[in-house]
Amino acid sequence: MAVRPATPDAIMEAGRLLRSGHLVAFPTETVYGLGADATNGLAVAGIFEAKGRPRFNPLIVHVTDLAAAELIGEFGDIARRLASAFWPGPLTLVVGKRATAPISDLATAGLDTIAIRVPSHPVAKALIQAASCPIAAPSANRSGHVSATHAQHVAADLGDRVDMILDGGPAREGVESTILDVSGPVPRLLRPGAVTAEAIAGVLGDWPAPIEIAVSPEKPIAPGQLESHYAPRAQVRLEARDVRPGEALLAFGADLPAHSGPTMNLSPSGDLREAAANLFAALRSLDAAGVVAIAVMPIPGTGLGDAINDRLRRAAAPR
Ligand code: TXA
Ligand code: MG
Questions:
Q1: Could you tell me which of 78, 73, 151, 77 has the C-alpha nearest to residue 118?
Q2: Model confidence over 171-203: pLDDT tens digits?
Q3: Mean per-residue pLDDT for 160-169?
Q4: How many other CB atoms are there within 10 angstroms of residue 279's CB atom?
Q5: Residues near 82 by Cβ (< 8 Å), separated by ≥ 6?
Q6: Integer Cα distance of 248 and 241 in angstroms
Q7: Has this prediction a pTM greater than 0.85?
Q8: Residue 207 burial (CB < 10 Å; 0-12/13-18/19+)?
Q9: Ligand 1, atom 19: closest residue by C-alpha
Q10: How many CB atoms lie within 10 A of CB 156?
């Protein structure tokens, strides 16, 4: 994998790589991000594969400005006011996902909300322009490792799991963006970060209400614990080798049990990356079809299979 100084040429090439489904690590003002085209499910699956994440967290989608953000998210008064005050910059806003947004369900982990941020780093800005697509990007580190603030750290951690690393020097802030959920009536701080709660409160005043601090340095919560998750309404039965009456089939591979009812195949060729890309959309479409129970064929526990099985186990857990 190539670490490339972030020259205009390298940025153009990185934009082409992103548009063709490849992964590019790039500097932002907070930490380095591991980017993929947010509209391309296979590319987004590649992020989870490269990070070795044992589960699918929803990702932050990076865009150039508020106008681009409004194409994928529903912005109310509070969201607009905060975007005007802090964008470009290290504030991530969680808003309702627009029904017409061409964002992969895997990027949002099947949620109805989407986390959006407009980075201020000149290389990040130029890269999103060059790619001309929204970029899904978690921090550019292996799962469980610390976030990378230098191109060389990204190279040491992710190696050739990434197609290009744009070197734009050290990330200035070194701490991730602040995440504020403005999808409900009261803004909720989900992750403290480079923009302080005081600065946010200063912009909002007490309108419509003081922000709710869901997490703070004094009330630490393990990463990931906060996330809400898409869960299908249907009952889910795992490791199914047959299909019982009334069940729909969530299949994997070519060798399906006998069944004539609703079927979604995560990957007829048995490809885990394709299965990951299709997972949330498949669950949603079975739900939309009104099925009451889903039989899920066994899925190998290697590579992305870990994260797929984690999601399915939680979908199957009694609620
Ligand atoms: O500074 C940053 O934000 C860096 C740079 C690369 O932009 N990115 C970053 O991404 O820290 P990541 O994936 O390490 O953290 C994203 C966080 C996760 O904790 C995830 O749960 C949360 O954002 N998140 C994403 N979408 C969400 C949603 N719809 N609702 C609630 N939380 C969400
Ligand atoms: Mg991270």
A1: 73
A2: 988 899 999 999 988 899 998 899 998 899 899
A3: 97
A4: 29
A5: 91, 93, 180, 182, 187, 200, 203, 204
A6: 13
A7: yes
A8: exposed
A9: 224
A10: 13
State pLDDT tens for residues 264-293. 999 999 999 999 999 999 999 999 899 999
Site to probe by mutation for ligand 1, drawn from 162, 227, 280 as the one with most ligand atoms within 8 Å of Cβ, is 227
Q: What is the CA radius of gyration of the chain?
A: 20
Are 95 and 183 spatial neighbours (Cβ–Cβ below 8 Å)? yes
Q: Is 33 in the pocket of ligand 1 (CB under 6 A)?
A: yes
Range name among 128-132, 226-230, 272-276 with the lowest pLDDT average:
226-230
Q: What pLDDT is attached to residue 317?
A: 84
CB neighbours of residue 57 within 10 Å:
16
CB-based neighbours (< 5 A) of ligand 2, an ion: 139
